[in-house]
Amino acid sequence: MQKPILALALTLPLLAPVIAEARPVRITTTLNAYGGDGAYLAIYVTDKAGKLQQTIHVAGGKAKYHKHLAGWFRQSGGRIDGTTGASVGAGKTLTVSAEIADTLIDAGFEIRVDSAVEKESDVPADARIPLAKGSVGTPAAGRGYVKTIAISM
Questions:
Q1: Is 127 exposed, middle or buried (0-12, 13-18, 19+ CB in 10 A)?
Q2: Domain ranges of the chain
Q3: DSSP secondary-structure letter at 118?
Q4: The pLDDT of residue 36
Q5: Among 111, 118, 117, 147, CA closest to 29
Q6: What are the DSSP calls for 55-117, one per residue?
Q7: Cβ(53)–Cβ(109) under 8 Å?
Q8: Which among 7, 61, 73, 144 would be 20 to 30 A from 83, CA to CA?
């Protein structure tokens, strides 16, 4: 009776990497030339219902302005579980990478970008792209400060 339990105990650690497979996903966000201060951006993964699953990156160094990234902030409470960096200038491109669980790819999840510019408007879900192999090589248009968002795997 103890031999099967011992075998299982020795096998489980070997299976963990198979169960928790992830792949690197690169997200490229290009901003429009809007003629203002640098944009604050929150790049995050949502499920089918739009619920936050993972923060990938928050661009913009002053935490007091993160509340203007409304869609992300409302769900995260400002808690950042991804990387951070400087705000992004008008017409510039930001590329970030993250390890995303294979189970999220082609399963109805999407990557969203909220944007905000000081003394300008805030744009929740400024850009959205399905987290799917079919999205690779096909940029999605933004509706505010974001011109396009694209992913590669």
A1: buried
A2: 21-152
A3: T
A4: 86
A5: 147
A6: EEEEE-S-GGGGGGSHHHHHHHTT---SEEE--B-TT-EEEEEEEEEGGGTTTT-EEEEEEEE
A7: yes
A8: 144
pLDDT tens per residue across span 144-153: 999 999 999 9
Nearest CA to 71 out of 128, 130, 151 is that of 128
What's the pTM value of the predicted model, to 2 decimals?
0.85
User: Residues with Cβ < 8 Å from 103, sequence gap 6 or more?
Assistant: none
pLDDT, one tens digit per residue, over 17-72 is 445 599 999 999 999 999 889 999 999 999 999 999 999 999 998 999 999 999 99
Summary count for the chain: helices (H), strands (E): 2, 9
Phi, psi of 106 (to 5 degrees): 60, 30
Cα separation of 149 and 32, whole Å?
11
Measured in residues, the chain has a length of: 153
Per-residue buried b or exposed e for 79-88, using 16+ beta carbons within 10 Å of the residue's own CB: eeebeeeebb
